[in-house]
Structures are given as C-alpha cells and as structure tokens.
Amino acid sequence: MTSPVTLRRASLALLLPVLLQGCGTQAPRGDTDRKGQPMLAAAPLHVTASIKELMDSTIDPAADGLWDSVGTIVTTAGIDTHQPRTDEEWHAVRRHALTLIEAMNLVVMDGRHAAPRGTKAGLGELSPQQMDAKIAANRAEFNLFAQAVHDEGLKALAAIDRKDPEALSSIGSDLDERCEACHVTFWYPNSARPTA
Ligand code: HEC
Q: Does the structural domain 51-186 have CATH classification 1.20.1070.10?
C-alpha cells in the first residue's frame, strides 16, 4: 500500500512538468523594447479580492492610520494635540502611507470586480454588475481617481519624511475628497447629496 507521503510526492512529480510548462509562457522571450533593453514577460498576477474587499481590508485601514495620526481633541482637561513624535511613531504612519499608495495599483488591476456578486446595493448605490459596467465604460476616469489618491499618498509620504504634522493634517482632508470623488461617481452616483 502506498503511504500518503509517497502519494503526495508522486502527484507532485506528475504536476511539476505541467506547472513548469505553464511558467514557460511567462518566461523572458528574448524580446527587446524600443531602446534595445531586454523585456521581461509580465509577472503572473492573481486577482482574489473585489475592490470592495480591498477597500475594507487595506485601503480604509491605511487611510485611517493617516487620518488618526494627527489631530486635536478638546476635552474637559484641555486641548490635546496628538502627532507622531518618536521615530517608531513616524515609521508606523509611513507604513500606512506606503500601503495606501501601493494599494491604488491593486485597485486598477485588470479583472478585479467592484464587489462580490450578490452584494446588496444600498439606497442610491449601484449593484456590483452596474459598477463593473460603469468602470469598464469609463476606465480612464476610474484610473485617474485612483491616481489622485496615489498622488495624495505620495504627498503624505513626503510630509512624513519631513516630519511635518501640519502638512500631514491638511493632506488628510484633501485625501478624503479624493476618495469621495471616486465613490460618488462609481459607487453611489444616485444618492441624495446635500444641497449647498
Ligand atoms: C478609484 C475609485 C476609488 C477610490 C479612489 C477609492 N475608492 Fe473606496 N470604493 C470604491 C469602490 C468601487 C467601492 C465598492 C463599493 C461597494 O462597497 O459596493 C469602494 C468601497 C469603499 C468602502 C466600503 C467597503 C465595504 O466593506 O463596504 C470604504 C470604507 C472605502 N471604499 C474607503 C475608501 C477610502 C478611505 C478611500 C481613499 C483613501 C477610497 N475608498 C478610495 C472605489 C474607490
């Protein structure tokens, strides 16, 4: 009788050539770009999360990390202004900025759906299919909204590297507007907006 271990080895041995063959299509093909530099085939990317899940797991917590890092709280004991002070505290905020910046590349990845199928659209919100269709029809605009958040993240990163809490604080409110710009266009275009 074959032990489970041997079985697993055997099936791996069978699988390996198949896997390697798959990789073969991704390997450099010796092509060169216009400047004569060798071109590497694009790395294989695997899309798992929807944009909604990326927002919840990565983007929103990173943005919160930036927003919460500086501020003023008025209490009965007086005014408490908080900001990163030690190198470790600045480093922690820097992680959030980098996460936000790089996560915007994930948001614009081809093949990523807006939300899991079956997600119920709230009042004024588009359904997952409607969001996908709207993004597909307005790809350039969608990418620009993501780019705007990316760029705001870069400004935050520069402020962090200068250890400038005032700049970080004002970037925070611009960042909020950039997030909303995409949401009102692609997520809840039909929601009632406060009239000025
Ligand atoms: C390029 C477009 C785009 C940008 C920029 C963007 N979002 Fe989103 N966001 C979406 C889409 C699409 C959804 C999915 C809508 C849904 O929940 O069905 C979403 C959903 C969300 C959700 C709801 C997640 C959930 O679990 O329901 C939060 C929170 C969120 N975004 C926060 C942010 C924050 C914070 C920023 C800015 C730092 C931001 N978003 C920038 C497109 C964007």
A: no
